């Protein structure tokens, strides 16, 4: 029987952070279950051209694992090296089970443990279960008439096919969000012609990137210097939430800055019109790039706006709403992920047969974005309303670990087996989250974004300062929980 004290589903930064925190707490009886055949998450999977982080690297890293970054905004290859650095430094490689695709989990109340069904690898059991699959793990590809007729090459940005040579080819990118904004400048100089299909324009701000010299990299390897730089960047970025939630004049100033940047980089008035958003900045994810606009202005790049959207596909390419036919060799789906309603992709059954699918039928919700009534000893890393639009997601993940380890410690200290949040506590927390959300640009900025679930509730984001979330997770509130 494959039985552990803790099972972690996913081996990206969330899973790695959970694993290291367990080791620091003296818990070594755990396994990471990874569905792929390699260790690591987003930055090992997403290898598309131009892939890079849009948060400064010293902040977009784990506080306990300093690293001598080569540049302020690390590119994918370096982020993958950082992942491998964390894995080796903390001896995690022997703790992972690869090609372990979780198909379903269910709570065994008699034995106070989770049964995790992992395909051909059988069933694993654990007292505690930490879901760290992340919100950006389920790619979405929209359906169009004639899609199966297309005879060219297609793939999603999440599964970039490096065996395909796009040089000199006619390429269509469907989508214009964060991934597309990185791919477009990377491949535009090499393709024959690039067609970008944009459902809506995004706000873009310049990317203040820089390379670190040898001495600076040496400093970054020292914990005191690393910690100081992290906090300087953190507080600089933390102030952004003032504009997103508390100050309309502040967000107006940021939007004017973005408009000036657009005018400076795109002299053509018609292209500039297509690239001007019709919603308040911040309502959707802000793109940070100094190369996107010049790439879109290239003579071999055509931007198709909403009135020229895709009507259907056929064997040779794309038919648009305005009656055009565009021959293409490659279609790249840069259409994002199911980051709200599909944050957990496998069936979850808790106490008394309670199904997570039913609990979340209206919209996903969780106490501290981490735990749910009727689902004892289950913790969701980067669960509902834990996303952060102004600083590093890893800060939130590390904050969640305070709560998760607090729950585990409370049970060990009292010799008990299970902990679950009380329904009233979850309800009070969720009502607070959505009450506070009304004041944010994510709710009132005039856009439809992937931050929202099908219900219209903003599910992806936390409506406030990240240090406020950290304070909420710092100390376990026993009165909010049922321990047995």
Automatic annotation (TrEMBL):
Highest taxon in the source lineage: Bacteria
Keyword Oxidoreductase recorded: yes
GO molecular function: monooxygenase activity
Spans traversing the lipid bilayer: none
SUPFAM superfamilies: FAD/NAD(P)-binding domain (SSF51905)
InterPro entries hit by this protein: FAD-bind_Monooxygenase_sf (IPR051209), FAD/NAD-bd_sf (IPR036188)
UniProt signal peptide: none
Keyword terms, alphabetized: Monooxygenase, Oxidoreductase
PANTHER family: FAD_NAD(P)-BINDING DOMAIN-CONTAINING PROTEIN-RELATED (PTHR42877:SF4), L-ORNITHINE N(5)-MONOOXYGENASE-RELATED (PTHR42877)
Protein name: Monooxygenase
Organism of provenance: Pseudomonas prosekii
